[in-house]
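chain below, 74 aa
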Amino acid sequence: VLAVMALQQVDGWFIVPKVMGKTVKLHPIAVLLAIVIGGELFGLIGILLGVPVAAFIRLLIIRYMGDLFNGEET
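prediction:
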Protein backbone atom coordinates (compact mmCIF):
# COMPACT_ATOMS: atom_id res chain seq x y z
CA VAL A 1 0.00 0.00 0.00
CA LEU A 2 2.80 2.42 0.88
CA ALA A 3 4.67 1.62 -2.33
CA VAL A 4 1.57 2.30 -4.43
CA MET A 5 0.98 5.57 -2.60
CA ALA A 6 4.60 6.61 -3.12
CA LEU A 7 4.46 5.80 -6.83
CA GLN A 8 1.20 7.69 -7.19
CA GLN A 9 2.73 10.76 -5.54
CA VAL A 10 5.80 10.63 -7.78
CA ASP A 11 3.53 10.26 -10.80
CA GLY A 12 1.25 13.12 -9.75
CA TRP A 13 3.95 15.59 -8.78
CA PHE A 14 6.72 14.90 -11.30
CA ILE A 15 5.83 12.70 -14.27
CA VAL A 16 2.39 14.05 -15.23
CA PRO A 17 3.35 17.77 -15.11
CA LYS A 18 6.46 17.06 -17.19
CA VAL A 19 4.56 15.12 -19.87
CA MET A 20 1.60 17.49 -19.90
CA GLY A 21 3.93 20.49 -20.00
CA LYS A 22 5.65 19.15 -23.10
CA THR A 23 2.29 18.51 -24.74
CA VAL A 24 0.92 22.02 -24.20
CA LYS A 25 4.37 23.68 -24.19
CA LEU A 26 4.15 24.92 -20.60
CA HIS A 27 6.75 24.66 -17.86
CA PRO A 28 5.93 21.85 -15.38
CA ILE A 29 5.63 24.38 -12.56
CA ALA A 30 3.12 26.34 -14.64
CA VAL A 31 1.11 23.13 -15.07
CA LEU A 32 1.08 22.52 -11.32
CA LEU A 33 0.13 26.14 -10.60
CA ALA A 34 -2.67 26.02 -13.17
CA ILE A 35 -4.09 22.88 -11.56
CA VAL A 36 -3.80 24.23 -8.00
CA ILE A 37 -5.18 27.69 -8.81
CA GLY A 38 -7.97 26.27 -10.95
CA GLY A 39 -8.91 23.84 -8.19
CA GLU A 40 -8.86 26.53 -5.54
CA LEU A 41 -11.04 28.90 -7.55
CA PHE A 42 -13.46 26.55 -9.31
CA GLY A 43 -13.13 23.10 -7.68
CA LEU A 44 -13.16 19.99 -9.87
CA ILE A 45 -14.04 21.91 -13.05
CA GLY A 46 -11.10 24.23 -12.36
CA ILE A 47 -8.75 21.28 -11.98
CA LEU A 48 -9.91 19.85 -15.30
CA LEU A 49 -9.79 23.16 -17.18
CA GLY A 50 -6.78 24.78 -15.47
CA VAL A 51 -4.10 23.56 -17.89
CA PRO A 52 -6.06 24.23 -21.11
CA VAL A 53 -6.87 27.75 -19.89
CA ALA A 54 -3.21 28.36 -19.02
CA ALA A 55 -2.16 27.12 -22.47
CA PHE A 56 -4.75 29.42 -24.07
CA ILE A 57 -3.46 32.40 -22.07
CA ARG A 58 0.08 31.53 -23.18
CA LEU A 59 -1.10 31.42 -26.79
CA LEU A 60 -2.77 34.84 -26.48
CA ILE A 61 0.32 36.37 -24.93
CA ILE A 62 2.58 34.99 -27.64
CA ARG A 63 0.22 35.95 -30.45
CA TYR A 64 -0.65 39.48 -29.36
CA MET A 65 2.36 40.49 -27.30
CA GLY A 66 5.04 38.51 -29.09
CA ASP A 67 6.19 41.58 -30.99
CA LEU A 68 7.13 43.24 -27.71
CA PHE A 69 9.62 40.47 -27.01
CA ASN A 70 11.09 40.33 -30.52
CA GLY A 71 12.17 43.98 -30.42
CA GLU A 72 10.56 44.77 -33.78
CA GLU A 73 9.00 48.18 -34.27
CA THR A 74 6.23 48.81 -36.76
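Residues 2-70 form one domain. The chain is about 90% helix and 0% strand.
thats it, cya
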